[in-house]
């Protein structure tokens, strides 16, 4: 409650940051977006997509297209 978000929202922010770091390092060229998300700590595609969209205001694939292709 100190940060104005739930525990899971707080943790998922770190997971999204880990995902972004892996994409920045070029992991998206070696494995799928879902594979990178799982490596970052997400257990489901829906949770990853929901968290990513909430934090980044974009879908993961569109974000990668805009910034890394």
Molecular structure report:
By secondary structure, the chain is mainly alpha-helical. It is built from four helices and no strands. It has helices at 7-24, 33-39, 45-56, 60-68. It is globular, with a radius of gyration of 12 Å. The model has no long low-confidence stretch (mean pLDDT 93).
Radius of gyration equals: 12 Å
From the spread of the alpha carbons, the general shape counts as: globular
- How many beta strands in the DSSP annotation? 0
Structural class: mainly alpha
* pLDDT < 50 runs, ≥5 residues: none
Distance between the termini: 38 Å
| Average of pLDDT | 93
Helix content: 55-70%
Order of helices and strands: HHHH
Strand content: under 5%
The DSSP helix count reads 4
Largest sheet: none
Label this structure with key terms.
0% strand; 4 helices; 69 residues
Please give the structural blueprint:
Elements: H1 7-24, H2 33-39, H3 45-56, H4 60-68
Helix pairs in contact: 1-3
Give a short synopsis of this structure:
67% of the residues lie in helices and 0% in strands. It has helices at 7-24, 33-39, 45-56, 60-68.
